[in-house]
Amino acid sequence: MEPTEEKRALGVEASIVFPSDSSIRNWQADRGRGIWIQDRQRNWYYGIFAGFCRDVDFAQAIGVETRGAGRLDKFASIIVRGERCPLTSFVTSAPPPSKRDKSKDIMGEKPAAN
Q1: pLDDT by residue (tens digit) across 3-15?
Q2: Is 60 inside any structural domain?
Q3: What domain range includes position 49?
Q4: Structurally, how many domains does the chain consist of?
Q5: What pLDDT score does 3 carry?
Q6: Which string of DSSP letters, residue by residue, matches 5-54?
């Protein structure tokens, strides 16, 4: 009998301790209003910016400013091309939508249910 993997609660405030190249696996911008970040355990999180983060959709790299706390959470900022983009929320999340699903959403179509 295989052990059952417990599902992670989504939408819960969270943090990534000591965010760095070794603890952040991937990230994807959400049209300047937020960012999905994946940790090294392949868990996804979603951060909401306090305002519009203008260059995040085109950035090749991001930085994380934790103000000495040593963790990426709702009090941190994402640095994009020298601009600080403060977060107001950082929660557990499902993975970002695929590009195909995102384009359907933009065109007003509902993504196919899997």
Answers
A1: 555 788 999 999 9
A2: yes
A3: 16-106
A4: 1
A5: 55
A6: PPPPPSS-B--EES-STTTEEEEEE-TTSEEEEEETT--EEEEEESS--T
